[in-house]
Amino acid sequence: MHPDLDRERSxxxxxxxxxxxxxxxxGWHEFQRRAxxxxxPARRLAGGRALATASVLALGIIAVxxxxxxxxxxxxxxxxxxxxxxxAHTAAMEHWLASLPREPAVVHVGTRxxxxxxxxxxxxxxxxxxxxxxxxxxxxxxxxxxxxxxxxVGALVQVRYAETLADESR
Length: 170
Known about the structure:
The protein is mainly α. The chain has one domain. The protein is built from 6 helices and no strands. 8% of the residues are buried.
């Protein structure tokens, strides 16, 4: 006999012995679940980017507003006890800032520049406050400097808070 024909018969027999259809690895619902799981981190990242963009835009608007004279250098006309922010509020803001790490793990140039600029301005106001207290300056001048410092600390809190939210969304 011909050995070539015998091989073909054994091959045909083996092919007939194979199962009719291979089982699918998973169904449509599992495919949708896995595709949705892959898309979730991308959606969270997009939300963080939007938040960071909005924060930087808000800081830019505040900076332009301040540069064009949004804040007046004149002291408030209110009574000193009514115009002065509560010391506990300022202390709470400073305590929260102190609890944050000095610099986040991932630093964005725009927000880092804003944080550094605000910290420098706070240090300048602190120096002015110290000098005015040593010279026993007029109470209205001290009040105006203290209010400026409180506004700067508040702005710093907002920037750092936006930084932490953007950092957590990654």
